[in-house]
Amino acid sequence: MAEYLIKNGFVFDPITGINGDKADIAIKGGKIVSSSELTKATEIDASGMTVMAGGVDVHAHVAGPKVNVGRNFRPEDKLFGATPKSKFERMGAGFSVPTTFRTAYIYAKMGYGFGIEAAMPPLYARHTHEEMRDTPIIDQGALPVFGNNWFVLEYLKNHEIENTAAYIAWLLRMTKGFGIKNVNPGGTEAWAWGMNCVEITDKVPYFDISPAQIVKGLIEANEYLRLPHCMHIHGNKLGEPGNYETTIDTLKLAEGIKANNDFGREQVLHNTHLQFHSYGGENYSSKGFRSASKEVMKYVNSVDNITFDTGIVTLDETTTMTADGPFEHHLSHMNNLKWANTDVELETAAGVVPFIYGKNTFIAVAQWAVGIELALLCNDAMRCHITTDAPNAGPLFRYPRVWSWLLSAKARDDLLADAKYGEKVRNACYIGELDREYTLMDLAKSTRAGPAKALGLSHMFGGLANGLEGDVVVYPFNPETQSLSNDYMDVEKAFSNCKYMVKGGELIVKDGEIISNGNKRTFWVNAKTNENKDVAHDITEKFKRYYTVTENNYEVNEKHFVANPYVIEVDATQ
Amino acid sequence: MSNIVTDVVCPFCGTLCDDLEVELSEDGTKILNVYNACAIGAAKFLHSQASDRLTRPRMRQEDGSWKEVSYEDAIEYTANLLENARKPLMYGWSSTSCDAQGVGSELGELTGGMMDNTATVCHGSTLIAVQDVGVPGCTLGEVRNRADRIVFWGCNPAHAHPRHMSRYSIYPRGFFTGKGSKSRKMYVVDPRKTDSANMADVHLQIEQGRDYELLDALRVALKGEWLPDAVAGIPKKQIYELAESLKEGRFSVIFFGMGLTHTLGKNHNIDAAISLTRDLNDYTKASIMPMRGHYNVTGSGQVWGWQFGYPFCVDLSRGFARYNPGETSSNDLLSRGEVDAVFVLGSDPGAHFPMSSNKVIAKLPSVAIDPHITPTTAICKLHVPVAFVGVEVGGCAYRMDNVPIETRKVVDPPEGMMTDEEFLAAVVVRVKELQEA
């Protein structure tokens, strides 16, 4: 494997503590090494440029059944900007929901090396893996959804953590999944009857369990299994004005639970797209809506066992998609655009609705402000991961624009000045009083080191210490001569299209162009548990009586479906 | 001792039953019997055992006779056909695995193919309607476990999807439907008195081609608004009753077929049916599902969805993917004389396309890749028989509710036969060689 020496760049890396100093990064055998170990390295001149570890995305919807619904039912999303086939690239298309190949190229050009597919319906796991197999370059893992699964609801109703854990371990093996996703706990099962659970004390129809019991039980099962990642939640009441209290109540369920794992993960709950869960007020009008980012962040800052990602609105036309079935139904009644829904037997549901976050509406800009505020109010960038919940709050390729808003107060002021209801947003939100600007070190924490740690992958990704994966990116941005504050458009441009990207020791992007499709891996977690005859019996019964596929046809065949598997073994038999 | 393979997936229709049991000879080389399958499914397995089956490609000669050729010759012909064509039609893809479809996409990109699948003469109008108004749907297990109102509209599952009612929609005792068919009310809307209609609690014998009116009338009836005495030949009393019944149900499902997609109104019928389902969700839970035909037509739309962004009618001839049904659909391309070569895999346009289109195919350089002798192979220049997917080679297929299931290999194909994926991969290699030369 080739050796590389990335010379003279301005390096930003929280793991080694290099903060903008000029340093050389050496890669050999696919890993970061000290430069003395190199023998015949290809030199990459990074002078006058920014060097970071490869990005790590903790939450995006880029592969699987609902993503493909988004593609297939929105030909208009591909009207402009299709990319042709070239020597190294397959054809690509899609603005908010790119095709799989394009997703890979977008990630690579933004300097990402690892991404989590945020919601995999277990029955559709094959589909998710088929799409990931066609997403070259980047390493991926997928989170199966558990919060409305009949097994989980039945076990947790009686607080049977051991059985829940045994079932989860079995399902991760069947679906080749990475961890526990929990979407609108209980609410999506209620949606199978057209209902919802909006408070964490509501009861799920028939199953007679509350969202709070599900959340707490899944956290406990997660720590019982000692999984690399923690329970990853999209809580109840997403998107509703006044939902911040429900959010804080949900976060409080993690109190007193300590992380139990061998991966260096310290948190037990990851709240995804917190922006959608941090609203005050009672409606979406400029008179009735207010930001509650301060209240939520006050709680998050006061504890240390929670991470979150932002889900910042990018003010684009996009495609929303979530396993929160009742929410998408609700949304379709708000904007009267087309609505797709799929309820999945015994497991989950999902909805898809196109959405336009108009810059000249009050509410879209207020939502934008809430997301930005969360990031600016968080006092630990390692626990605040920057996402757009792609494509829900904005398309994947907009990440660098989001970064520019965090790095530059001027970028935010200019946006508000240009927005029709900018003043009203300043009044209803806290954006106007926040003058904090992220540093590039903050950015490296919140897009690399932090998410890697939360995913239990800090032994591989997120930094530039010797022994970590050879994922390194060089952005054509000179922090000495260019100003993060004033040249924010240059920041967006530079971070959207890196100069060089090395993934797993292989040069993928050279002079801004894709030159290789790399050696993509799929990460999944194999948790060993003690034999559990009760759970095995329950599984067989459910397949006999209620599933429409047989038990023997449920497992995703690793050889056939999983691209270059990388299995993380966990022992939970003790 | 009998040699039985269990959990076999049936590669015939979109119902994709996965509980078949296949009895093999003791040495495992011959299929003796197929259990649990419907008559059509069983026939497909048994047909693979036919003694007069073609096992090598054959090329049509000037005098109209066939001459056996090697797979190498077939690869060479196909690669040259695609490479020399300015705008080859690459049609079919519905009776093969997603794996083969994926290799087909690569071939299409290399040669600028016009990629289309059987939806073009089937549920293509559904795909267009979904792009207009979306689709509230569910998996078939939701129907099995919850649905208490079942409507079959313009479809005849008793004949076309024979195990649909017993596995999913009418008879099974599900979690919340413990009384099986007694838990459910079955409605059939069809101008014909079909065998499915005979089984229904209520058969609405609609006037042919009036589906749009009746669907709209149901939307009106849901709101309790005024209707004329009869719509589409159905008395208003019956319309109000059906609307009320669907509202009262805990979980209503509409299944629809060609009677809706390819009668007067086409995609507009589906728009109306989906809108009715959407309206119903304001009162109760409701879903709608197309009765997809070929066992993996759904998968073809999925694969192209994630690779190109469109489920059918994909034009790759300009170097990037483009979609415009009506222009880029197979029959429109053929009738305008816009394609200069035809490549067919896993489908039978000879049987399903209009005669005018088949006349065009017959005049063009053409290849059909199909295990069977079909009306299509009869008009093509080259016929490449391949192994049966789901019988002689495994691979992924998507059920009508988009659930992916891995089909199984039960027996080996006859010696020396290629699978369609292998054949396609070999053509890709050859086309790349030709392009580099």
Average pLDDT of chain B, to the nearest integer?
97
Broad structural category of chain B? alpha/beta
Distance between the termini of chain B: 57 Å
Q: Please state roughly what percent of the residues of chain A sit in beta strands, choosing from under 5%, 5-15%, 15-25%, 25-35%, 35-45% or over 45%.
A: 15-25%
Radius of gyration of chain B: 23 Å
Secondary structure tally, helices of chain A: 18
| CATH top level assignment of the largest domain in chain B | Alpha Beta
> What's the tally of helices of chain B?
18
Stretches of chain B where pLDDT falls below 50 for ≥5 residues? none
State which percent range the strand residues of chain B make up.
15-25%
Distance between the termini of chain A: 40 Å
What proportion of the residues of chain A is helical, as a percent range? Answer: 25-40%
**How many individual β-strands of chain B?**
22
How is the biggest beta sheet of chain B arranged? Answer: 9 strands, mixed
Based on the coordinates given, report the CATH architecture of the largest domain in chain B. 3-Layer(aba) Sandwich
Q: Main attributes?
A:
heterodimer, A: alpha/beta, five-stranded parallel beta sheet, 18 helices, 24 strands, B: 437 residues, alpha/beta, Dimethylsulfoxide Reductase, domain 2, 22 strands, globular
Topology summary:
The complex is a heterodimer of chains A (574) and B (437).
Chain A (H helix, E strand, L loop, with lengths): L3 E10 L4 E11 L2 E3 L8 E4 L4 E4 L1 E6 L4 H8 L27 H11 L1 E9 L4 H9 L5 E6 L5 H8 L3 H15 L5 E3 L3 H5 L19 H15 L5 E4 L9 H9 L16 E3 L7 E3 L7 E3 L1 H10 L3 E4 L7 E6 L2 H11 L3 E6 L3 E9 L5 H16 L6 E2 L13 H9 L1 H10 L3 H7 L11 H15 L17 E4 L12 H9 L3 E4 L2 E5 L2 E2 L7 E7 L4 H13 L12 H4 L3 E7 L3
Parallel strand pairs in A: 1-4, 1-5, 6-7, 7-8, 8-23, 9-10, 10-11, 11-14, 14-18, 23-24
Antiparallel strand pairs in A: 1-2, 2-3, 5-19, 12-13, 15-17, 16-17, 19-20, 20-21, 21-22
Helix pairs in contact in A: 4-5, 4-7, 5-7, 5-17, 8-9, 9-11, 11-14, 12-13, 12-16, 13-14
Chain B lengths: L2 E6 L11 E5 L6 E5 L3 H9 L10 E3 L5 E3 L2 H14 L3 E5 L5 H14 L2 E4 L6 H10 E5 L1 H7 L2 E5 L3 H4 L3 H6 L15 E5 L5 H5 L2 E3 L6 H12 L7 E2 L2 E2 H13 L2 E6 L1 H4 L5 H14 L4 E6 L6 H11 L6 E2 L6 E2 L6 H6 L5 E5 L3 H4 L2 H9 L2 E4 L5 H5 L2 E3 L10 E4 L5 E4 L12 H17 L1
